[in-house]
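Internal QA ticket QA-208
Title: Verify multi-chain structure generation after dependency bump
Assignee: T.L.

Test input:
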Amino acid sequence: MAVIDETQAGLLHQTGEGAQELRPRSELSAKELLREVGAVLRMSEAEAAKYAAGTGNNEYHDDQTMIINMGPQHPSTHGVLRLMLELQGETVLRCKPIIGYLHTGMEKTGETLTYMQGGTNVTRMDYVSPLNNELVFSLAVEKLLGIDGDIPERAVWMRMLLSELNRMSSHLLFMATNGMDLGAVSMMLYGWREREEVLRFFQKVTGLRMNHNFIRPGGLAADLPAGWRDDVLAILDMLPPRLAEYDVLMTGQPIWRDRLQGVGVITAQEAMALGSTGPILRSTGLAWDLRRDMPYLRYDEVEFDVIVGTYGDCFDRFAIRLNEIRESMKIVRQILDRMPSGDYRIQNKKVTPPPRARIDESMEALIHHFKIFTEGFKVPEGEVYVAIESPRGEIGCYIASDGSSKPYRMHVRAPSFVNIQTLPHMMRNCLVADAVAIISSVDPVLGEVDR
Amino acid sequence: MGLVNDVLDDGLGGIQHNALTGRIEDLVKWARSRSSWGATFGLACCAIEMMGSGGSHYDLSRFGMEVFRASPRQADIMIVAGRVSQKMAPVLRQVYDQMMEPKWVISMGVCASSGGMFNNYAIVQGVDQIVPVDVYAPGCPPTPETLIHAIETLHQLIEDGEIMKRRAQTGAGANVHITEIAAAVEPTPVLLGNR
Amino acid sequence: MSNTPAPEAAADTSPSTEPAPTLHGHPLTDSFGQPVVHVARSSYIALIKQLANDGYVMAVDLCGVDYLTHPGRTLPEGIAPERFEVVVNLLDIEHRRRLRVRVQIPANDATCPTLFDLHPGTEAMEREAYDMFGISFANHPDPTRILMPEDWDGHPLRKDYEVGVIPVQFSADYVQNAPRAEETSAWQ
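Actual output:
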């Protein structure tokens, strides 16, 4: 399904009503861009409560709609997402997602932390794929510093390895939660079983299972430990038969297909208008993946396919993520073959701290260490926006610097924040049980939605 | 009326002279500690580790806790896993109030225990400002071993009966701080369903 | 990291002075290899429409910035610095390029036209800008707070809003005197 080219101004139809042409896209209003503008329930909580209370006459009309609240504490929402659903019987008419229950003030806190500490803050936004958050933050800082072309090869390839493994563990978590939301409770155990293997590798490399603070401006915090190749190969050997198990348990199974196919359909036009990216956009047929289309790191030197769906429904999104695990494994195998030797961080005294042993010997090293860890390194004035492909879509980091050692403004463009806007349009005229499937297929992580 | 007052004050355990009912009280406490069900209150990153503890490698099921009830009416332990924002605080209190006695609270992670690294306008600095906490589990996030240590500490307190008596006097939580257990450096993999 | 070439700049043919590059009549600058267009609030919507016709079909990000404590930032000629800025990042899928648009918003009149009609995906982002900075978006379908509680006072990301740090006194005594699980017998 090709991108609809709205600017075909030469398209003329001669009809009985005279010549007609397509108006340029810029002249379209939101009503025309979106199929169902009436899908979003624009009511404040007070109004909804009054509506729910009714007129007080105790009259019930057959066509009366009901506004119910789902969340923020609910087993089927991914984190503290609250939905106000307007129901007619079991059918969802309109919906309003209400967020903010996990707002942590991370952007404000980011302004009080130095650039080296910034990773600890950013990594907790999308806590399911923390290394991708750190990567986008580090790339933005490196662009401001002007060292983005000088990062050593080994550091770049190590970043790619960790980012792809993180994509695998994030999609495995999606498999687990998606299965559980739809009733395949054993899928929760299987997904976590596989995820444990990847987390164990992360623990060996970074020291932590989650929220690693490992990818830092300038490179990484430490080198890969000895024996890492065997560990990665063990993961790559273990996964394919288990993914084949998932195909048996889910992909070909009639109950699964009935629950997911045709549910939560969204068109490419809508998805682009709403700004959604990642598996949601790819499920509509538009093959947009930043790793291939606007490559960063060394993604232009590895071969992989971009998985694209056809119908834009929940089953497509599930299948896309399942196959993206396989594509990530392909990329990891290529990285294993091509991992160069060298430094794991740039040898720039102003940015990377010196090795601990040198601090005892050299006064200069001691001063650099002190300055980097207390005051932080200063970053030139300016602003950048860098975006990478996280498992949920395009994650971007906008940093405005005023020349000091702390960001003046740090804003993270979280993919789930924007993807959640597609929920009302996907849920229109679906049943309440489908609402759970749809939320699960969007795969939001509320940490990055609320920041 | 001494016997009635004894029972009112200390439950069946207050009856010192009757060996049979004394043992039933022990049985009740043992059953409570072995089959406590958690209320799902996973908020942020700690929720992922909590789900990991319920997974097959760390297996909370061997402690009777693999069932996380969504309805607070059916839950005993509320594990507050994650940072509590200003908007979430009333919801937390409401869910806690809806739980039925006996109920306990584990504050999992540093954000729930004290606000963690987010000492700012948006995060409640410690969930003990809202609900009485029984066990604090440190870590960011706590490893599943730490969470299991916290849960087992709580189970021990329940089985000893100490925790019920103190709550009646002060209405406060047990306030136990446990030490964090670092994840094992070379853990052995679990080979389940291997082909 | 891959930087796309800047869009076509309209240039004069006079060789003596180097004209400042413009895009649709608005100053175009380069920020670390990324093209940025600065536009006045009155022509903001018109520019976004022209850019949508040029191919920038997706508005991936809209955020606010408060320059209260950094008024001396570099801006091209003709653009007067104000307290707030609205920064929009646009994406052209067909030509694989990005463009940033910056609009200056004065403090005493913190309003901005909404992009909702052109890019419905900016609805939540504009609500966040309103919540965090107090920039109202005219004709926005749902101008309410999104992250903070609806009755919250103040706009947290403004520079004159405190972070809200509560000073914590750490002392060794506290750690030693906290009850430990091994001391359960001490409670009787």
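Spot checks passed. Residues 22-187 of chain C form a domain with the Beta Polymerase; domain 2 fold (CATH 3.30.460.80).
Status: verified.
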